[in-house]
Automatic annotation (TrEMBL):
Main location: cytoplasm
One GO term (biological process): purine ribonucleoside salvage
PANTHER family: PHOSPHOGLUCOMUTASE 2B-RELATED, PHOSPHOMANNOMUTASE 45A
PROSITE patterns per UniProt: PGM_PMM
Family: Belongs to the phosphohexose mutase family.
Xref: InterPro entries: A-D-PHexomutase_a/b/a-I (IPR005844), A-D-PHexomutase_a/b/a-I/II/III (IPR016055), A-D-PHexomutase_a/b/a-II (IPR005845), A-D-PHexomutase_CS (IPR016066), Alpha-D-phosphohexomutase_SF (IPR005841)
Domain spans labelled Alpha-D-phosphohexomutase alpha/beta/alpha: 2-141, 171-275
Protein name, as recorded: Alpha-D-phosphohexomutase alpha/beta/alpha domain-containing protein
The organism's place on the tree of life at top rank: Eukaryota
Keywords of this entry: Carbohydrate metabolism, Cytoplasm, Glucose metabolism, Isomerase, Magnesium, Metal-binding, Phosphoprotein
Length: 347
């Protein structure tokens, strides 16, 4: 395994090229030392780190080994007491002004995999040169420290805090500033079918819909509960298209609904599908369109722009920007041009 900007991701098993207790300890020892080099040991101890994990095999145990390395360096740890969506980790990091965050997840990979994702103090995934610096510190700290294996007393350690109740409430309070027309939402004629792809997303998406006052989502029952076996999908990636959304489409057809929302198992990736008017396909199913990530991003950018205009009648277009990543479609550039605002590409 090679540590990069996305952290680590590999099959679970024995050996230095696999995700296991030893490689998690080695990675955390290296990360810990790198953070101490960047911020100083005292600042790391004062500000702490956040650790989250998904519902995959071994994620809970791996998270305890991560926490143990930090607390044995005197660094306080905000360790979630239950599996959570990946976005909770960077949100908590910013909320508590921590130096870094770790999310134990392999995202949408097959069931054999797990991973280790690192977030920097700004809440973003790490970028160069931090990946190289962390990798070097891992290589310099491959021998497990004497205390790194002992996780039996983690829950009772005074340096451990469970941030879950506060982060949950804070997160769903914070997102409401992006709910532009809450008074109209309860009357929405659209009911969405939702799949968690056997991951952690359902209770949190349900809470998000409640926070926005939207009609309750209809879950895909076969995929609603966390299950590390992913029994109904070989690759739990909603962006695989209709093949990954087969059960979602069946549920939507059975309930007469026309919109599907899908998350990957750690709920940081989203897919959207809409039933199209016209003829049905073979087997009596409707014709469903699965939107690409670029299309979803463009729709969200347009929606943000529409509501900004509504709430800021006389805005200065030179001070308003639409931003997309360098690997994204530049459709937002065209939207920005029409709206008379600025467009920028992030690195």
């Amino acid at each position: 395994m090679t540590f990069g900007t996305a952290g680590l991701r590999s099959k679970m098993g024995a050996g230095f090229s696999r995700m296991n207790d030893l490689t998690v300890i080695q990675t955390t020892q290296g990360l810990c030392k790198y953070l101490e080099l960047q911020f100083g040991k005292e600042a790391c101890q004062e500000r702490g780190v956040v650790i989250g994990y998904d519902a995959r095999y071994n994620s809970h145990r791996f998270s305890r080994y991560v926490a143990n390395v930090f607390i044995n360096e005197g660094i306080k740890v905000y360790l979630f007491s239950r599996e959570t969506p990946t976005p909770f980790t960077p949100f908590a990091l910013r909320r508590y002004s921590c130096v870094a965050g770790v999310m134990v997840t392999a995202s949408h990979n097959p069931k054999q995999d797990n991973g280790y994702k690192v977030y920097w103090t700004n809440g973003a995934q790490i970028i160069p040169p931090h990946d190289k610096g962390i990798s070097q510190c891992i290589d310099d700290n491959l021998t497990p420290w004497p205390t790194s294996w002992e996780i039996s007393n983690i829950a009772r350690n005074p340096l451990i805090t469970d941030p879950y109740p506060d982060v949950k409430d804070g997160y769903f309070s914070a997102i409401q500033k992006y709910c532009y027309r809450k008074q109209e939402n309860p009357a929405s004629p659209v009911t969405c079918v939702y799949t968690a792809m056997h991951g952690v997303g359902y209770p949190f998406v349900k809470m998000a819909f409640e926070a926005f006052g939207l009609p309750e989502i209809i879950p895909v029952e076969e995929q609603v509960k966390p299950d590390p076996e992913f029994p109904t999908v070989a690759y739990p990636n909603p962006e695989e298209g209709k093949s990954a959304l087969d059960l979602s489409i069946s549920t939507a057809e059975a309930h007469g609904h026309s919109v599907i929302i899908a998350n990957d198992p750690d709920a940081d990736r989203l897919a959207l599908a809409e039933k199209q008017p016209g003829n049905t396909n073979k087997g009596g199913r409707g014709n469903w369109r699965v939107f690409t990530g670029n299309e979803i991003g463009s729709m969200l950018g347009w929606w943000a722009m529409e509501n900004f205009k509504k709430n800021n009648k006389n805005f200065d277009g030179s001070k308003v920007h639409l931003i997309c990543s360098t690997v994204s479609s530049k459709l937002l550039r065209s939207i920005a041009k029409v709206e008379g605002i600025q467009f920028s590409v992030s690195g």
